[in-house]
Amino acid sequence: MSDNYGGRDRERNDSDASSIFSGRSTTTAPTEWSASEGTQTETDNDLISIMSSIYDSTHSISSSVLNYHFENGRRYHAYHEGKYIMPNDLQEQNKLMLVHLCYELVLDGRLHLAPLNDPRDALDIGTGRGDWAIDFAEKFPSTQVIGTDLSPIQPLWVPPNLAFEIDDAEDEWVYSTQFDYIHTRTLCGGIRDWPKFHRQAYDNLRPGGWLEMQENEAWFQREDGTCPQWTNLFLEKLDEASIMSGNRLNVAGDQKQHMLDAGFVNVRDEVFKLPLSTWHDDSRMKEIGRIRGLAMNQGVEGYSLALYTRYLNWSSGDVRDLLAKVRQEFNDVRNRMYITVHVVYGQRPEGVQPIL
Length: 356
Known about the structure:
Blueprint lengths: L41 H13 L8 H4 L2 E3 L2 E3 L13 H17 L14 E5 L5 H9 L4 E6 L12 E5 L12 E7 L8 H10 L1 E18 L6 H17 L9 H8 L2 E11 L7 H29 L4 H16 L5 E11 L9
Parallel strand pairs: 3-4, 3-6, 4-5, 6-7
Antiparallel strand pairs: 1-2, 7-9, 8-9
Helix pairs in contact: 3-8, 5-7, 6-8, 8-9
């Protein structure tokens, strides 16, 4: 955890020109593409040429990874296009920054709840902007950290013990080392075969290593468990569409059992309820509600736009009309709405062979 926790304003260039990837990836310098035309600009070509000269021969640039997909005014990943329903544009990146800050507050500055002891190798799956991976690498400077994602949106300047890679967690894992710690955050909606995912995580941990998943439920509600009218409609349709897509969003509560089924031991599921506005009486929870509410305002469109238009045949205008009503409901402090987060972690037992 950096010393200026809670008020960090880490300098970064949020354009995609600020990414670097290790040799396992075929991409080094992602670049910005024209949202209006979906084509590469002359500036982009110049940037690729410049960035290509920076890195050695173990790195190369793949235009297929940089050729982002644009849909309904939002930008999506190109690598394994269509697998993940969340966009990767600046609006989504701003949401990820707010979510990272919110987790810092919720966990009292801790980056993990699993009881780690000087890990040698760590893996962050679905690293997004790389905020968590950067903080973790700074906290454990002797740990070799890898952050993976479908989108090359991470910054160029990172701790020397951190490398970012373009990878799909649903592919076969071919890492050259086993890990002492594997971390995920908000990966729900990105995995179709959860038993396979947990089996691969188990097999790629050293005996005694930990898997930790920090996942929020894709459902929010009042304190009494009910939902306002438009929120209830929105969530029911969101769940329906995500099930149709094969990547159900609302599976955070299932992760503990998946870990147990894969053979993990010492499994714990720690649950936190986060306000979605400033309705809470406690000052700390009020601040959490302010930040999580800002993130939800930024992110609720990203969760739903692709799912509603691709699988429910809604128009983008109808989706945004519904979202305006949903935002009004969770921003209304009288509704006292919250979202539930599960921090689930478990250990691969010592001296036990992988479950095949």
